[in-house]
Amino acid sequence: MSLFTNKWPNYCQEYNILSNIIEFAKVEPKLGNINAYTLDDEQAKKLGLFLIVDRYQLFVGCLGQSLELLEQALHQLDWSRGVLCTSMPQRYLATVLKVIRAKQLDVEFHHESDLYLLSKERALQLNIDCPEGFQLEPLSEEDAQLIDQEWPYSHEGSLYFLQRQIRLCPSMGLYDKQTRKLIAWCIRTQDSLLAALHVDSKYKRRGFGTTVVKAISRRIAALGDDVAAEIYSNNKASCSLFLKLGFQVIDQCHWINTAPTIGKFTWPEGQQDPKIKNVKIYTLSEQRAKDEALFVIVDRYQLFVGCLSNSEALVKEALTLIDWSSGLKCSSIPARHIKDLEIVVKEKQLKLQFNDVTNLYYMTRQEASELKVEAPAGYFLDTLKEVDADLVNEEWPNRHVGSLYFIQRQIRMCPSVGLYTTDAKELVAWCIRLQGGYLGALQVRSSHKRRGFGSVVTREITRRIGSLGQDVMALVNPQNNASCAMFDKLGFKVIDQCYWLRTEPLTGEVTWPDGE
After folding, report:
1. Is 145 in contact with 477 (CB distance < 8 Å)?
2. pLDDT tens sequence across 255-271
3. How far is 397 from 359, CA to CA, in rounded Å?
4. Which are the contacts of 242, defined by CB distance < 8 A and separation ≥ 6?
5. CA separation for the pair 465, 7 (Å, rounded)
6. Secondary structure letter of residue 189 according to DSSP
Protein backbone atom coordinates (compact mmCIF):
# COMPACT_ATOMS: atom_id res chain seq x y z
CA MET A 1 0.00 0.00 0.00
CA SER A 2 2.90 2.35 0.78
CA LEU A 3 3.94 2.12 -2.89
CA PHE A 4 1.14 4.51 -3.75
CA THR A 5 2.32 7.22 -1.34
CA ASN A 6 5.22 8.06 -3.66
CA LYS A 7 4.67 11.19 -5.76
CA TRP A 8 1.67 12.05 -3.60
CA PRO A 9 -1.11 12.80 -4.49
CA ASN A 10 -0.74 11.22 -7.97
CA TYR A 11 -1.90 7.84 -6.69
CA CYS A 12 -4.14 8.98 -3.85
CA GLN A 13 -7.15 7.10 -5.25
CA GLU A 14 -5.30 3.79 -5.25
CA TYR A 15 -3.97 4.37 -1.74
CA ASN A 16 -7.39 5.35 -0.41
CA ILE A 17 -9.31 2.32 -1.67
CA LEU A 18 -6.64 -0.08 -0.40
CA SER A 19 -6.44 1.65 2.97
CA ASN A 20 -10.19 1.60 3.50
CA ILE A 21 -10.76 -1.99 2.39
CA ILE A 22 -8.00 -3.15 4.76
CA GLU A 23 -9.62 -1.15 7.57
CA PHE A 24 -13.04 -2.59 6.72
CA ALA A 25 -11.59 -6.09 7.07
CA LYS A 26 -10.17 -5.22 10.51
CA VAL A 27 -13.36 -3.61 11.78
CA GLU A 28 -15.81 -6.15 10.35
CA PRO A 29 -13.92 -9.34 9.50
CA LYS A 30 -17.11 -11.03 8.31
CA LEU A 31 -18.05 -8.25 5.90
CA GLY A 32 -18.72 -10.11 2.67
CA ASN A 33 -18.74 -9.54 -1.08
CA ILE A 34 -15.46 -7.61 -1.25
CA ASN A 35 -12.72 -9.39 -3.20
CA ALA A 36 -9.16 -8.28 -3.99
CA TYR A 37 -7.11 -9.75 -6.83
CA THR A 38 -3.63 -9.48 -8.30
CA LEU A 39 -1.40 -11.61 -10.53
CA ASP A 40 0.99 -14.25 -9.23
CA ASP A 41 3.91 -12.34 -10.70
CA GLU A 42 6.90 -10.63 -9.07
CA GLN A 43 6.56 -7.63 -11.37
CA ALA A 44 2.89 -7.27 -10.42
CA LYS A 45 3.95 -7.13 -6.78
CA LYS A 46 6.54 -4.43 -7.49
CA LEU A 47 3.95 -2.36 -9.35
CA GLY A 48 1.32 -2.79 -6.62
CA LEU A 49 -1.16 -4.23 -9.16
CA PHE A 50 -4.64 -4.82 -7.72
CA LEU A 51 -8.26 -5.23 -8.71
CA ILE A 52 -10.87 -4.76 -5.98
CA VAL A 53 -14.48 -5.79 -6.58
CA ASP A 54 -16.83 -4.40 -3.94
CA ARG A 55 -20.17 -6.08 -4.69
CA TYR A 56 -20.45 -4.81 -8.29
CA GLN A 57 -17.99 -1.89 -8.20
CA LEU A 58 -14.50 -2.32 -9.66
CA PHE A 59 -11.44 -0.37 -8.49
CA VAL A 60 -8.03 -0.76 -10.12
CA GLY A 61 -4.48 0.29 -9.37
CA CYS A 62 -1.03 -0.18 -10.90
CA LEU A 63 2.19 1.88 -10.89
CA GLY A 64 4.27 2.61 -13.96
CA GLN A 65 3.62 3.69 -17.53
CA SER A 66 3.21 0.24 -19.07
CA LEU A 67 -0.15 -1.29 -18.10
CA GLU A 68 0.17 -4.66 -19.82
CA LEU A 69 -0.11 -6.50 -16.50
CA LEU A 70 -3.27 -4.54 -15.64
CA GLU A 71 -4.74 -5.52 -19.01
CA GLN A 72 -3.86 -9.15 -18.33
CA ALA A 73 -5.53 -9.04 -14.92
CA LEU A 74 -8.68 -7.37 -16.30
CA HIS A 75 -9.02 -10.12 -18.91
CA GLN A 76 -9.08 -12.71 -16.12
CA LEU A 77 -11.80 -10.88 -14.19
CA ASP A 78 -15.37 -12.21 -14.31
CA TRP A 79 -17.45 -9.53 -16.08
CA SER A 80 -20.55 -11.69 -16.54
CA ARG A 81 -22.67 -10.08 -13.78
CA GLY A 82 -21.99 -6.54 -14.94
CA VAL A 83 -19.34 -4.25 -13.47
CA LEU A 84 -19.22 -0.56 -12.55
CA CYS A 85 -15.67 0.70 -13.08
CA THR A 86 -15.61 3.28 -10.29
CA SER A 87 -13.61 6.50 -9.84
CA MET A 88 -11.09 5.20 -12.38
CA PRO A 89 -8.17 7.63 -12.85
CA GLN A 90 -7.58 8.90 -16.38
CA ARG A 91 -4.35 6.88 -16.77
CA TYR A 92 -6.26 3.57 -16.78
CA LEU A 93 -8.99 4.55 -19.25
CA ALA A 94 -7.42 3.31 -22.49
CA THR A 95 -6.52 -0.07 -20.97
CA VAL A 96 -9.97 -0.65 -19.48
CA LEU A 97 -11.76 0.35 -22.70
CA LYS A 98 -9.46 -1.97 -24.67
CA VAL A 99 -10.51 -4.93 -22.49
CA ILE A 100 -14.20 -3.97 -22.70
CA ARG A 101 -14.00 -3.89 -26.51
CA ALA A 102 -12.10 -7.19 -26.63
CA LYS A 103 -14.76 -8.88 -24.51
CA GLN A 104 -17.52 -7.22 -26.59
CA LEU A 105 -19.22 -5.89 -23.45
CA ASP A 106 -22.13 -3.46 -23.73
CA VAL A 107 -21.48 -0.15 -21.97
CA GLU A 108 -24.61 1.18 -20.26
CA PHE A 109 -23.01 4.53 -19.42
CA HIS A 110 -19.63 6.29 -19.29
CA HIS A 111 -19.32 9.42 -17.14
CA GLU A 112 -16.33 11.65 -16.45
CA SER A 113 -15.77 13.70 -13.30
CA ASP A 114 -13.08 15.98 -11.85
CA LEU A 115 -11.11 14.80 -8.82
CA TYR A 116 -10.83 17.54 -6.17
CA LEU A 117 -8.32 17.36 -3.31
CA LEU A 118 -7.76 19.39 -0.13
CA SER A 119 -4.66 18.76 1.99
CA LYS A 120 -5.20 17.75 5.59
CA GLU A 121 -3.25 20.79 6.72
CA ARG A 122 -5.64 23.17 4.94
CA ALA A 123 -8.69 21.16 6.00
CA LEU A 124 -7.74 21.49 9.66
CA GLN A 125 -7.73 25.28 9.23
CA LEU A 126 -11.35 25.40 8.04
CA ASN A 127 -13.54 27.47 10.34
CA ILE A 128 -16.95 25.97 11.09
CA ASP A 129 -19.80 28.15 12.29
CA CYS A 130 -22.77 25.91 13.01
CA PRO A 131 -25.99 27.88 12.37
CA GLU A 132 -27.97 28.81 15.48
CA GLY A 133 -30.64 26.26 16.29
CA PHE A 134 -28.81 23.42 14.51
CA GLN A 135 -26.36 20.72 15.58
CA LEU A 136 -23.51 19.02 13.65
CA GLU A 137 -23.13 15.32 14.44
CA PRO A 138 -21.90 12.14 12.72
CA LEU A 139 -24.75 10.38 10.92
CA SER A 140 -26.33 7.25 12.37
CA GLU A 141 -27.42 4.18 10.41
CA GLU A 142 -31.03 5.21 11.05
CA ASP A 143 -30.42 8.25 8.82
CA ALA A 144 -29.63 6.00 5.84
CA GLN A 145 -33.32 5.57 4.97
CA LEU A 146 -33.81 9.31 4.41
CA ILE A 147 -30.47 9.72 2.62
CA ASP A 148 -31.32 6.84 0.28
CA GLN A 149 -34.73 8.36 -0.49
CA GLU A 150 -33.15 11.70 -1.44
CA TRP A 151 -30.09 10.30 -3.24
CA PRO A 152 -30.29 10.74 -7.04
CA TYR A 153 -28.36 7.44 -7.39
CA SER A 154 -30.69 5.42 -5.15
CA HIS A 155 -31.14 1.87 -6.41
CA GLU A 156 -31.75 -1.63 -5.12
CA GLY A 157 -28.83 -2.25 -2.78
CA SER A 158 -27.98 1.41 -2.18
CA LEU A 159 -29.53 1.42 1.31
CA TYR A 160 -27.11 -1.31 2.38
CA PHE A 161 -24.23 0.69 0.87
CA LEU A 162 -25.19 3.89 2.72
CA GLN A 163 -25.63 2.05 6.01
CA ARG A 164 -22.23 0.43 5.60
CA GLN A 165 -20.46 3.69 4.80
CA ILE A 166 -22.09 5.51 7.72
CA ARG A 167 -21.06 2.66 9.99
CA LEU A 168 -17.46 2.33 8.79
CA CYS A 169 -16.39 5.78 7.56
CA PRO A 170 -16.58 9.40 8.72
CA SER A 171 -19.89 11.16 7.99
CA MET A 172 -21.61 14.37 8.97
CA GLY A 173 -25.17 15.55 9.41
CA LEU A 174 -26.76 18.90 10.28
CA TYR A 175 -29.79 18.47 12.54
CA ASP A 176 -32.49 20.80 13.81
CA LYS A 177 -31.87 20.96 17.58
CA GLN A 178 -35.55 21.01 18.54
CA THR A 179 -37.07 18.48 16.15
CA ARG A 180 -33.93 16.39 15.48
CA LYS A 181 -34.79 16.54 11.78
CA LEU A 182 -31.84 15.83 9.50
CA ILE A 183 -31.39 18.89 7.29
CA ALA A 184 -28.12 18.33 5.39
CA TRP A 185 -25.55 15.58 5.14
CA CYS A 186 -22.43 14.14 3.53
CA ILE A 187 -20.83 10.68 3.66
CA ARG A 188 -17.46 9.23 2.66
CA THR A 189 -17.26 6.39 0.13
CA GLN A 190 -15.09 3.28 0.27
CA ASP A 191 -12.44 5.07 -1.82
CA SER A 192 -12.52 8.11 0.50
CA LEU A 193 -14.57 10.47 -1.68
CA LEU A 194 -17.06 12.89 -0.17
CA ALA A 195 -20.44 11.82 -1.52
CA ALA A 196 -24.22 12.02 -1.26
CA LEU A 197 -23.93 15.72 -0.30
CA HIS A 198 -27.47 17.00 0.05
CA VAL A 199 -29.51 19.77 1.66
CA ASP A 200 -33.24 19.48 2.30
CA SER A 201 -35.11 21.54 -0.31
CA LYS A 202 -36.74 23.69 2.38
CA TYR A 203 -33.33 24.77 3.70
CA LYS A 204 -31.40 25.49 0.51
CA ARG A 205 -29.47 28.71 -0.15
CA ARG A 206 -28.48 29.09 3.50
CA GLY A 207 -24.93 27.72 3.24
CA PHE A 208 -25.77 24.44 4.95
CA GLY A 209 -24.02 22.41 2.23
CA THR A 210 -20.82 24.34 2.86
CA THR A 211 -21.19 23.80 6.60
CA VAL A 212 -21.37 20.00 6.39
CA VAL A 213 -18.53 19.84 3.83
CA LYS A 214 -16.34 21.89 6.16
CA ALA A 215 -17.28 19.73 9.14
CA ILE A 216 -16.65 16.38 7.48
CA SER A 217 -13.42 17.69 5.93
CA ARG A 218 -12.16 18.73 9.38
CA ARG A 219 -13.16 15.34 10.77
CA ILE A 220 -11.28 13.46 8.01
CA ALA A 221 -8.20 15.67 8.35
CA ALA A 222 -8.15 15.04 12.11
CA LEU A 223 -7.71 11.35 11.23
CA GLY A 224 -4.58 12.28 9.26
CA ASP A 225 -6.07 12.08 5.75
CA ASP A 226 -6.34 14.50 2.85
CA VAL A 227 -9.89 15.15 1.67
CA ALA A 228 -11.09 14.12 -1.80
CA ALA A 229 -14.27 14.58 -3.83
CA GLU A 230 -15.43 13.94 -7.39
CA ILE A 231 -17.68 16.43 -9.16
CA TYR A 232 -19.13 16.58 -12.66
CA SER A 233 -17.72 19.63 -14.42
CA ASN A 234 -21.24 20.81 -15.38
CA ASN A 235 -22.27 20.96 -11.71
CA LYS A 236 -21.27 24.61 -11.40
CA ALA A 237 -22.65 25.12 -7.90
CA SER A 238 -20.68 22.22 -6.40
CA CYS A 239 -17.53 23.12 -8.32
CA SER A 240 -17.74 26.67 -6.98
CA LEU A 241 -18.33 25.46 -3.41
CA PHE A 242 -15.28 23.18 -3.37
CA LEU A 243 -12.98 25.66 -5.10
CA LYS A 244 -14.01 28.33 -2.60
CA LEU A 245 -13.06 26.02 0.26
CA GLY A 246 -9.59 25.55 -1.21
CA PHE A 247 -9.95 22.23 -3.03
CA GLN A 248 -7.97 21.84 -6.26
CA VAL A 249 -8.64 19.68 -9.33
CA ILE A 250 -5.80 17.15 -9.66
CA ASP A 251 -7.16 14.54 -12.10
CA GLN A 252 -10.13 13.28 -14.11
CA CYS A 253 -11.89 10.05 -13.16
CA HIS A 254 -14.22 7.79 -15.11
CA TRP A 255 -17.29 5.72 -14.29
CA ILE A 256 -18.05 2.97 -16.81
CA ASN A 257 -20.91 0.55 -16.28
CA THR A 258 -20.97 -2.68 -18.28
CA ALA A 259 -24.13 -4.72 -18.77
CA PRO A 260 -24.40 -8.31 -17.47
CA THR A 261 -23.70 -10.94 -20.11
CA ILE A 262 -25.79 -13.67 -18.47
CA GLY A 263 -29.22 -12.83 -17.05
CA LYS A 264 -30.03 -10.02 -14.66
CA PHE A 265 -27.80 -8.78 -11.86
CA THR A 266 -28.84 -10.15 -8.45
CA TRP A 267 -27.79 -8.67 -5.12
CA PRO A 268 -25.89 -10.69 -2.50
CA GLU A 269 -28.06 -12.07 0.28
CA GLY A 270 -28.65 -9.61 3.12
CA GLN A 271 -27.88 -6.48 1.08
CA GLN A 272 -31.46 -5.69 0.08
CA ASP A 273 -33.24 -5.62 3.45
CA PRO A 274 -30.89 -6.17 6.42
CA LYS A 275 -32.70 -7.59 9.45
CA ILE A 276 -31.76 -8.26 13.05
CA LYS A 277 -32.76 -11.71 14.20
CA ASN A 278 -33.69 -13.15 17.58
CA VAL A 279 -35.61 -10.10 18.83
CA LYS A 280 -39.30 -10.72 19.51
CA ILE A 281 -42.04 -8.30 20.63
CA TYR A 282 -45.24 -9.41 22.35
CA THR A 283 -48.41 -7.86 23.73
CA LEU A 284 -51.93 -9.01 24.59
CA SER A 285 -54.74 -8.93 22.06
CA GLU A 286 -57.19 -6.99 24.28
CA GLN A 287 -57.87 -3.31 23.69
CA ARG A 288 -56.87 -2.51 27.28
CA ALA A 289 -53.34 -3.74 26.52
CA LYS A 290 -53.18 -1.39 23.55
CA ASP A 291 -54.51 1.49 25.63
CA GLU A 292 -51.80 0.93 28.24
CA ALA A 293 -49.02 0.35 25.64
CA LEU A 294 -48.21 -3.06 27.12
CA PHE A 295 -45.19 -4.82 25.64
CA VAL A 296 -42.81 -7.64 26.41
CA ILE A 297 -39.58 -7.75 24.40
CA VAL A 298 -37.27 -10.76 24.35
CA ASP A 299 -33.90 -9.89 22.86
CA ARG A 300 -32.04 -13.21 22.57
CA TYR A 301 -32.23 -14.14 26.28
CA GLN A 302 -32.97 -10.70 27.80
CA LEU A 303 -36.53 -9.78 28.74
CA PHE A 304 -37.85 -6.20 28.89
CA VAL A 305 -41.36 -5.19 29.92
CA GLY A 306 -43.33 -1.95 29.82
CA CYS A 307 -46.85 -0.79 30.64
CA LEU A 308 -48.26 2.65 31.44
CA SER A 309 -50.54 1.37 34.20
CA ASN A 310 -50.77 -1.96 35.92
CA SER A 311 -54.14 -1.62 37.61
CA GLU A 312 -55.53 -4.59 35.68
CA ALA A 313 -52.48 -6.87 36.21
CA LEU A 314 -51.64 -6.76 32.49
CA VAL A 315 -47.94 -7.31 33.10
CA LYS A 316 -48.54 -10.46 35.14
CA GLU A 317 -50.89 -11.85 32.51
CA ALA A 318 -48.41 -11.23 29.70
CA LEU A 319 -45.42 -12.63 31.60
CA THR A 320 -47.36 -15.77 32.41
CA LEU A 321 -47.70 -16.50 28.68
CA ILE A 322 -43.98 -16.10 27.94
CA ASP A 323 -41.83 -19.19 27.31
CA TRP A 324 -39.39 -19.38 30.23
CA SER A 325 -37.92 -22.79 29.38
CA SER A 326 -34.56 -21.56 28.10
CA GLY A 327 -33.96 -19.19 31.01
CA LEU A 328 -34.36 -15.41 30.80
CA LYS A 329 -32.50 -12.41 32.12
CA CYS A 330 -35.17 -9.92 33.17
CA SER A 331 -33.35 -6.68 32.45
CA SER A 332 -33.76 -3.19 33.93
CA ILE A 333 -37.28 -3.99 35.21
CA PRO A 334 -38.87 -0.82 36.70
CA ALA A 335 -39.77 -1.07 40.38
CA ARG A 336 -43.51 -0.76 39.53
CA HIS A 337 -43.42 -4.10 37.68
CA ILE A 338 -41.20 -6.13 40.00
CA LYS A 339 -44.06 -7.44 42.15
CA ASP A 340 -45.86 -9.00 39.17
CA LEU A 341 -42.61 -10.46 37.87
CA GLU A 342 -41.80 -12.07 41.21
CA ILE A 343 -45.31 -13.54 41.39
CA VAL A 344 -44.88 -15.17 37.95
CA VAL A 345 -41.45 -16.50 38.91
CA LYS A 346 -42.91 -18.02 42.07
CA GLU A 347 -45.99 -19.50 40.36
CA LYS A 348 -43.84 -21.10 37.65
CA GLN A 349 -41.42 -22.36 40.31
CA LEU A 350 -38.48 -20.82 38.49
CA LYS A 351 -35.07 -20.85 40.15
CA LEU A 352 -33.15 -17.58 40.28
CA GLN A 353 -29.42 -17.29 39.60
CA PHE A 354 -29.42 -13.71 40.89
CA ASN A 355 -31.73 -10.83 41.83
CA ASP A 356 -30.00 -7.43 41.76
CA VAL A 357 -31.14 -3.83 42.03
CA THR A 358 -29.72 -0.69 40.39
CA ASN A 359 -30.45 3.03 40.67
CA LEU A 360 -31.84 4.71 37.56
CA TYR A 361 -29.97 7.96 36.90
CA TYR A 362 -31.57 10.49 34.56
CA MET A 363 -30.65 13.72 32.74
CA THR A 364 -32.87 15.77 30.41
CA ARG A 365 -31.88 16.18 26.78
CA GLN A 366 -31.54 19.94 27.28
CA GLU A 367 -29.04 19.53 30.12
CA ALA A 368 -27.17 16.81 28.23
CA SER A 369 -26.80 18.75 24.99
CA GLU A 370 -25.31 21.71 26.89
CA LEU A 371 -22.49 19.71 28.50
CA LYS A 372 -19.01 20.98 27.63
CA VAL A 373 -16.51 18.29 26.68
CA GLU A 374 -12.82 18.60 25.91
CA ALA A 375 -10.50 15.68 25.24
CA PRO A 376 -7.31 15.65 27.35
CA ALA A 377 -4.09 16.70 25.61
CA GLY A 378 -2.68 13.79 23.63
CA TYR A 379 -6.07 12.09 23.24
CA PHE A 380 -9.11 12.38 20.99
CA LEU A 381 -12.77 11.34 21.26
CA ASP A 382 -14.40 9.31 18.51
CA THR A 383 -17.22 6.86 17.87
CA LEU A 384 -16.28 3.26 18.65
CA LYS A 385 -15.75 0.86 15.75
CA GLU A 386 -16.75 -2.79 15.71
CA VAL A 387 -13.07 -3.73 15.79
CA ASP A 388 -13.01 -2.18 19.30
CA ALA A 389 -15.59 -4.71 20.50
CA ASP A 390 -12.96 -7.36 21.24
CA LEU A 391 -11.21 -5.11 23.76
CA VAL A 392 -14.49 -3.78 25.21
CA ASN A 393 -15.72 -7.34 25.68
CA GLU A 394 -12.41 -8.53 27.13
CA GLU A 395 -12.48 -5.79 29.78
CA TRP A 396 -16.23 -6.03 30.51
CA PRO A 397 -16.93 -7.54 33.97
CA ASN A 398 -20.25 -8.89 32.62
CA ARG A 399 -18.81 -10.66 29.56
CA HIS A 400 -20.20 -14.09 28.76
CA VAL A 401 -20.76 -16.41 25.83
CA GLY A 402 -22.53 -14.22 23.29
CA SER A 403 -21.49 -10.86 24.75
CA LEU A 404 -19.07 -10.08 21.92
CA TYR A 405 -21.94 -10.25 19.42
CA PHE A 406 -24.01 -8.02 21.69
CA ILE A 407 -21.29 -5.36 21.99
CA GLN A 408 -20.63 -5.42 18.24
CA ARG A 409 -24.35 -4.91 17.60
CA GLN A 410 -24.67 -2.03 20.05
CA ILE A 411 -21.59 -0.27 18.64
CA ARG A 412 -22.99 -0.69 15.15
CA MET A 413 -26.49 0.56 15.91
CA CYS A 414 -26.35 2.93 18.89
CA PRO A 415 -24.30 5.94 20.00
CA SER A 416 -20.93 5.08 21.53
CA VAL A 417 -17.77 6.95 22.47
CA GLY A 418 -14.13 5.99 22.84
CA LEU A 419 -11.11 7.94 24.06
CA TYR A 420 -8.01 7.20 22.00
CA THR A 421 -4.35 8.19 22.25
CA THR A 422 -3.47 10.62 19.46
CA ASP A 423 -0.19 8.98 18.52
CA ALA A 424 -0.93 5.22 18.62
CA LYS A 425 -4.75 5.50 18.37
CA GLU A 426 -4.97 3.14 21.35
CA LEU A 427 -8.42 2.87 22.95
CA VAL A 428 -8.14 3.69 26.66
CA ALA A 429 -11.72 4.46 27.80
CA TRP A 430 -15.19 3.91 26.41
CA CYS A 431 -18.94 3.82 26.93
CA ILE A 432 -21.72 2.29 24.81
CA ARG A 433 -25.50 2.58 24.84
CA LEU A 434 -27.52 -0.53 25.64
CA GLN A 435 -30.68 -1.59 23.80
CA GLY A 436 -32.76 -0.33 26.75
CA GLY A 437 -31.38 3.17 26.11
CA TYR A 438 -29.07 3.16 29.15
CA LEU A 439 -25.38 3.94 29.21
CA GLY A 440 -23.40 0.75 29.67
CA ALA A 441 -20.01 -0.98 29.64
CA LEU A 442 -18.34 2.21 30.93
CA GLN A 443 -14.70 1.31 31.37
CA VAL A 444 -11.22 2.82 31.68
CA ARG A 445 -8.19 0.61 31.09
CA SER A 446 -6.22 -0.03 34.27
CA SER A 447 -3.16 1.77 32.86
CA HIS A 448 -5.17 5.01 32.52
CA LYS A 449 -7.32 5.06 35.66
CA ARG A 450 -7.64 7.96 38.14
CA ARG A 451 -7.25 10.59 35.40
CA GLY A 452 -10.92 11.49 34.91
CA PHE A 453 -11.21 9.62 31.60
CA GLY A 454 -14.41 7.84 32.68
CA SER A 455 -16.05 11.20 33.25
CA VAL A 456 -14.82 12.46 29.85
CA VAL A 457 -16.37 9.61 27.83
CA THR A 458 -19.56 9.75 29.92
CA ARG A 459 -19.89 13.49 29.26
CA GLU A 460 -19.34 13.02 25.53
CA ILE A 461 -21.80 10.16 25.00
CA THR A 462 -24.33 12.01 27.17
CA ARG A 463 -23.89 15.14 25.07
CA ARG A 464 -24.28 13.16 21.84
CA ILE A 465 -27.47 11.46 23.01
CA GLY A 466 -28.87 14.77 24.20
CA SER A 467 -28.04 16.30 20.81
CA LEU A 468 -30.14 13.54 19.22
CA GLY A 469 -33.12 14.94 21.12
CA GLN A 470 -33.21 12.16 23.69
CA ASP A 471 -32.99 12.13 27.47
CA VAL A 472 -30.07 10.19 28.96
CA MET A 473 -30.27 7.34 31.46
CA ALA A 474 -27.81 5.12 33.27
CA LEU A 475 -28.19 2.21 35.69
CA VAL A 476 -25.69 2.12 38.56
CA ASN A 477 -25.25 -0.35 41.39
CA PRO A 478 -25.92 1.69 44.56
CA GLN A 479 -22.85 0.08 46.17
CA ASN A 480 -20.61 1.46 43.39
CA ASN A 481 -19.77 4.67 45.23
CA ALA A 482 -17.33 5.98 42.62
CA SER A 483 -19.83 5.70 39.74
CA CYS A 484 -22.66 7.14 41.84
CA ALA A 485 -20.49 10.14 42.74
CA MET A 486 -19.50 10.70 39.10
CA PHE A 487 -23.10 10.70 37.83
CA ASP A 488 -24.18 12.95 40.70
CA LYS A 489 -21.39 15.39 39.83
CA LEU A 490 -22.38 15.44 36.15
CA GLY A 491 -25.91 16.47 37.12
CA PHE A 492 -27.82 13.19 36.82
CA LYS A 493 -30.72 12.55 39.23
CA VAL A 494 -31.90 9.21 40.66
CA ILE A 495 -35.55 8.82 39.62
CA ASP A 496 -36.27 5.10 40.14
CA GLN A 497 -34.85 1.69 40.87
CA CYS A 498 -34.59 -1.12 38.32
CA TYR A 499 -34.22 -4.85 38.91
CA TRP A 500 -32.27 -7.64 37.22
CA LEU A 501 -33.46 -11.23 37.67
CA ARG A 502 -31.86 -14.25 35.97
CA THR A 503 -33.95 -17.42 35.82
CA GLU A 504 -32.37 -20.81 35.27
CA PRO A 505 -33.30 -22.87 32.18
CA LEU A 506 -35.96 -25.52 32.73
CA THR A 507 -34.52 -27.85 30.09
CA GLY A 508 -30.79 -28.21 29.55
CA GLU A 509 -28.37 -25.32 29.07
CA VAL A 510 -28.85 -22.08 27.15
CA THR A 511 -27.82 -22.42 23.50
CA TRP A 512 -26.96 -19.31 21.53
CA PRO A 513 -28.56 -18.49 18.16
CA ASP A 514 -26.38 -19.29 15.15
CA GLY A 515 -23.69 -16.68 14.55
CA GLU A 516 -23.87 -15.15 18.05
Report:
1. no
2. 999 998 886 666 666 55
3. 18
4. 116, 118, 213, 229, 231
5. 43
6. -
